């Protein structure tokens, strides 16, 4: 995937740490959580209501992984009882445009992908 025509092509790498980060940031729940949190900070249950299909365990795991990677901040709110809010971190906010571009790309290209899948499945069945 190295594009040698670009002056910074030598800087582009896809080694183990890069693959691990991309896997963790671009999985199905992470993309949705980041997309939602780019809108505004939310508490855990607000996120669960916003992303209805995610389970509690999956959301907890996703938030912890995003927090570990610096994409999301967990903020304790001094209320009684105390609350916890999740918000996009500065480095996570840099993904906002990229995630929006990916979502636009999938929307625009999904019909062609579905046609390709149908062609593949038709050939595979014979």
Automatic annotation (TrEMBL):
Keywords: DNA-binding, Transcription, Transcription regulation
UniProt keyword annotation of Cytoplasm present: no
Source taxon at top rank: Bacteria
InterPro entries: HTH_HxlR (IPR002577), WH-like_DNA-bd_sf (IPR036388), WH_DNA-bd_sf (IPR036390)
Keyword presence, DNA-binding: yes
Gene Ontology molecular-function annotations: DNA binding
Domain HTH hxlR-type residues, every copy: 16-114
PROSITE patterns named among the record's database cross-references: HTH_HXLR
Matches recorded under PANTHER family: TRANSCRIPTIONAL REGULATOR, MARR FAMILY, TRANSCRIPTIONAL REGULATORY PROTEIN
The protein, known as: DNA-binding HxlR family transcriptional regulator
Organism of derivation: Cryobacterium roopkundense
């Amino acid at each position: 995937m190295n594009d040698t025509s670009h002056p910074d092509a030598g800087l582009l790498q896809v080694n183990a740490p890069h693959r691990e980060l991309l896997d963790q940031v671009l999985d199905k729940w992470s993309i949705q959580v980041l997309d939602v949190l780019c809108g505004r900070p939310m508490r855990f249950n607000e996120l669960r209501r916003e992303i209805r299909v995610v389970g509690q365990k999956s959301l907890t795991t996703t938030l912890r992984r995003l927090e570990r990677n610096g994409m999301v901040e967990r903020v304790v709110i001094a209320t009684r009882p105390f609350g916890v809010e999740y918000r996009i971190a500065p480095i996570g906010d840099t993904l906002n445009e990229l995630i929006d571009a990916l979502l636009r790309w999938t929307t625009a290209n999904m019909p062609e992908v579905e046609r390709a899948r149908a062609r593949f499945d038709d050939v595979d069945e014979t």
